[in-house]
Amino acid sequence: MTMTKTLDLKNTVNLLFATILIFMASISLAFAGEASEWKNQETKVKGMWSIEQRADGDYLVLSDKFKTRNAPDLKFFASKAEYSSINGKNATKDAVVIAELKSNKGSQSYKIPSDLNLSDYNSLVLHCEQYSKLWASTPLK
Asked: What does the alpha-carbon distance between residue 69 and residue 33 come to, in Å, rounded to a whole number?
């Protein structure tokens, strides 16, 4: 009888642990995984982007086919606005900086600030802050 109770408890613990792992994985997949294209473009942006979860945090990752025109002060923002309504004048309103663009072409990774909860934002924006010029925006979700 004691052996059966021990096995039942062990099975229950294993089931609980598996449930927790599945729940955590589903949260992770909310942003990670599939690559996306840039949608709302005022300046041509080629290549895909994705959000990857790594041991030290989340990263915005640009594909090796990423390419756009070079400009000063190009930055990635997370915006609360819908991507289709973003333009050069409102691109930084209700938005936070993720990182400054390192290069106008090629594969790149940008660590997303740990205090930035992407689930609070609707769009990813590439914007020339110096000249208030939108490059492109796309849905985060």
From this structure: 27
The CA distances from residue 134 to 7, 69, 113, in Å, are: 61, 12, 22
DSSP class of residue 113?
Answer: P
CA pair distance 50, 7, nearest whole angstrom: 43
Q: Which of 121, 59, 118 has its CA nearest to residue 86?
A: 121
Listed in order, strand segments (DSSP E) in the chain are 36-37, 40-41, 45-46, 48-54, 57-62, 67-68, 74-79, 95-100, 108-111, 123-128, 133-139
Q: Residue 3 in 3-state DSSP?
A: helix
Residue type, 49: W
Distance CA 75, CA 92 (A): 10
Q: For residue 66, how many other CB atoms are within 10 A of its CB? A: 20
The CA distance from 141 to 129, in Å, is: 24
Interval 27-39: pLDDT, tens: 444 444 567 899 9
The tens digit of pLDDT for each residue in 63-102 reads 999 999 999 999 999 999 999 999 999 999 999 999 999 9
